[in-house]
Design brief:
The chain has helices at 16-27, 43-54, 80-85, 104-115, 132-143, 157-166, 183-186, 236-243, 251-267, 273-281; strands at 2-8, 31-37, 60-63, 77-78, 90-94, 97-101, 124-128, 147-152, 177-180, 195-198, 224-227, 248-250. By secondary structure, it is of the alpha/beta class. The protein folds into two domains: 2-103 and 254-281, Leucine Dehydrogenase, chain A, domain 1 (Rossmann fold, 3-Layer(aba) Sandwich), CATH 3.40.50.10860; 117-246, Rossmann fold, CATH 3.40.50.720. Helix 5 (132-143) links the parallel strand 7 (124-128) and strand 8 (147-152). Helix 1 (16-27) crosses helix 9 (251-267). The relative contact order is 0.14.
């Protein structure tokens, strides 16, 4: 039996067990997928969980908020995408070593292209946030030729500057543009934007009415709005975008895609996305 799990906090409404159960069934493998909800203050439990994987009691782990960067300290090696992004969402074991990988970036880009098969002529994007999820999105967009700006709260400016500096190689030595997530600094540049991606947890259950977009600031016309939050499926940001007549994409597609890529990393078998999506839609 293959033993997999998801590390994060909290995890009470995670859809990952349903996704991977569908994947196991689809490819005919016997396996289980468990949730490991560890409070950020419980460092001993985190170390113990990593120890269980080193001992062969777990074959793989997914990692989510708030551990995508913290977990780096416990790993032996990182794949190139994980090292460049500086965040891990998938861990596997190879020759006795724990390897950190990132399937968020290709998962996001694959679903974005599904939702937006024809990119704007000028590929300019705003990414809201500067945490681990934002790093994966920025990596994916830069790799696909987008011009990216980070829009963050004042409290996150330092984190955004660190992110921008770490991606200098992918931007030809130039730092990413950083904007305050406030009406006054955003308003003059909104007309140039073709894509807005929310990579913050704002709007996630149970704070479903929270919204990362500044109150009273109109969303730019002809802009595609993608929200990585998948619970609820229709966040307040996506509702506002739909009401403004804009096309939108939910993080549920990225959730399925990154899970499928992680499953393939662990098992060597690619599960059918349609069956995984059906399992999610049934919830």
């Amino acid at each position: 039996m293959i033993h997999l799990g998801l590390l994060g906090y909290p995890l009470s409404h995670s859809l990952s067990p349903q996704l991977h159960s569908a994947a196991f069934h689809a490819v005919g493998l016997d396996g289980e997928y468990r949730l490991f909800s560890i409070h950020p203050d419980q460092v001993d439990e985190l170390a113990e969980l990593v120890g269980r994987m080193r001992a062969g009691k777990l074959d793989g782990l997914n990692v989510t908020i708030p551990y995508k960067q913290t977990i780096l300290l416990y790993l032996d090696h990182l794949t190139l995408p994980a090292r460049t992004i500086g965040a891990v969402n998938t861990i596997y074991c190879e020759d006795g070593c724990l390897i950190g990988h990132n399937t968020d970036a290709p998962g996001f880009l694959s679903d974005l292209k599904r939702c937006l098969p024809e990119a704007p002529r000028e590929k300019r994007a705003f990414v809201l946030g500067a945490g681990g999820a934002a790093r994966a999105v920025v990596y994916a967009l830069l790799s696909d030729g987008w011009n990216v700006s980070l829009a963050v709260r004042r409290a996150d400016l330092g984190q955004a500057e660190t992110l921008a500096t770490s991606f200098a190689r992918l931007t030809g030595g130039e730092s990413l543009r950083i904007c305050l997530l406030e009406s006054e600094p955003l308003n003059p540049v909104l007309g140039q934007i073709g894509l807005i991606v929310n990579a913050t947890p704002l709007g996630m259950y149970p704070d479903s009415e929270a919204c990362p977009w500044p109150e009273g600031l109109a969303l730019p016309e002809a802009t595609f709005v993608y929200d990585l939050v998948y619970n609820p499926r229709q966040t307040r940001l996506l509702r506002q975008a739909s009401q403004a007549g804009l096309q939108t994409g939910s993080g549920i597609g990225m959730l399925v895609e990154q899970a499928a890529l992680a499953f393939e990393t662990w098992t060597g078998q690619a599960p059918p996305r349609l069956e995984m999506m059906a399992a999610v839609e049934a919830e």
